[in-house]
Amino acid sequence: MFRIFGPPGTGKTTTLLGMVEKSLADGVSPSRIGFFAFTKKAANEAKERAAARFDLDPDKDLPYFRTIHSLAYRLMGIKDSDLMSHENYQQLSGAIGFDLTGTAFSEDAETTFKNTDHPILRLIHLAKTKKTTLQHEYNHSSVGFLWHEVQYVAESYENYKKAFHLMDFTDLLIRFVDEADFVMPELKLCFLDEAQDLSPLQWDIANKLDDKSEKMYVAGDDDQAIYRWAGADVNWFISLPGGAEVLKQSYRVPKAVHALAERIASRIQNRFPKTYLPRDEMGQIIRVPGIYSIDMSEGQWLIMAQARYMLYEIETELKNGGYLFERQSGGRSIPEKMSLAINGWESLRRGKTITFAAAEAVYSYMTGNGVRIKRGHKKINAEEDDVFDLNSLQQHHGLLATIDMIWHEAMDRIPATDRAYVTALLRRGEKFNAKPRIAVSTIHGSKGGEADNVAIFTDLSGAAHRDFLDNPDDTHRVFYVGVTRTRKNLYVIEPIHPMQSYII
Asked: CB of 494 within 8 A of CB of 288?
């Protein structure tokens, strides 16, 4: 394997895609090139770019541009019925007296298969992924269960899968390691992105891919390895034998922030030594007492904190300030339905027509039973492609609200807190139906993102502070990732609890 180290903003993925394009231009068959990533988004980006450049069918001509788990699922001929489903978890839960259903999350494969986030099942998957024992992972965890409970669930879980000939996501990867020699085709070139986040089990798969490839490139940045808690083992990437190249030029990080990032990186004890150049702009580092002291009325912003619970206070501050923002989950700070309803009502007042969907949204925030809508007219009896003006709604669909009512008078069921927030947005002049300029995220959730202006909180959660004392490299890497998201200005927010914070 040949390693490509890509410091922040150096265009690591773009470099890999350029190598893919060169290979295709040199006549390598697209079916003999593998490009593997950890998210479907990254894999699809590579697939679509290569397909567009060489006029290929992305699905038929590029069969090995996919996630690792998708590769395993495809090559081994697995069906959804072979995998643990929500119904299976429900059945097992009822049989053993433990609710293992939890919140379902996708493993991003070509399947409807979902894992569950129950802490005991997470622990079981983690032990298999790290190739350790369940006892070891339990001893190093903070799960709120006794060992005999964990052991009982683990044994019941394995017995259930065996009895019904089922597997889960981790089992799929383990089986793929055993069968890769027989099912994996020979490749001319193989690319594996974000290699610093591979777990020991995934490194077994990487080695199988290497065996089946004439040339394999693994790309990543050990300084940005922030998923040890999920089983990633950066030591494999750092100590991998063979050649290596470091991409030398960042197209994102300005000089002042680059100097700060280098100081943070120098604190990491276990790392591959590397140097890279910042972009030509100086940039700024500004230290502020709180988010309330930052003017975010213009420009692109990314606001980050170490722990998810800290985001709630950030969101409250932004709402109080009348800022529109995007949450880590991808949702906007004002619901799409409410935005549609407010814009719809104001359009009606201006004599314009609105769509059926907008009219339904307007009605959903109005009290029926003769208050804002006549009794029996809460549901609009019309076709989905119909349009309405204020008069048609009043004459034919029971609307009682009148043109002199502004949005919060007409739509009297909008909660008071949302009313106050929308009012603050309008006062600031925010176009609350537009794409937000401000994003709020944990540092982990921001990986791969960037913005002209970045604000980073330096407080640590109790668990993160304890981990910092035991394993400081992980925390150094987290804040290295955080500060290197910026293209221009970095705002460092002073901690609320200085003794439980990270010094930048």
From this structure: yes
The tokens for 287 are 């230290």
pTM recorded for the entire structure: 0.89
* Pairing mode, strands 387-388 and 354-355: antiparallel
Secondary structure element (H or E) that encloses residue 138, with its range = helix 134-139
In 314-457, which ranges are E strands? 325-326, 354-355, 387-388, 438-442, 451-457
CA distances from 70 to 189, 207, 243 (A): 18, 17, 29
Q: What's the first-to-final CA gap in the chain, in angstroms?
A: 35
Alpha-carbon distance values, 443 to 34, 99, 377, 485 (Å): 30, 31, 48, 9
- pLDDT category at 115 given cuts 50, 70, 90 is low
Q: Evaluate whether 366 touches 373 at the Cβ level (below 8 Å).
A: yes
**DSSP structure string for 27-47:** T--GGGEEEEESSHHHHHHHH
**Do β-strands 213-220 and 65-67 pair in parallel, antiparallel, or remain unpaired?**
unpaired
Q: At what angle do helices 147-164 and 119-130 cross, to 10 degrees?
A: 80
- In this structure, are strands 114-116 and 104-106 parallel, antiparallel, or unpaired? antiparallel
- Backbone φ, ψ for residue 444 (5° rounding): -60, -40
Classify 9 as helix, strand or coil: coil
Phi/psi of residue 275, each to 5°? -130, 145
Contact 123, 141 (CB under 8 A): yes
CA angle 23, 29, 35 (to 5 degrees): 65
If one counts every other C-beta atom within 10 angstroms of the C-beta of residue 435, the result is 8
Higher pLDDT, 39 or 199: 199
Q: Which residues pair with 325 in a beta bridge?
A: 438
Residue 349 scores a pLDDT above 50 = yes
Alpha carbons 328 and 318: distance in angstroms, whole number? 14
User: Which band of pLDDT confidence, cut at 50, 70 and 90, is reported for residue 116?
Assistant: low
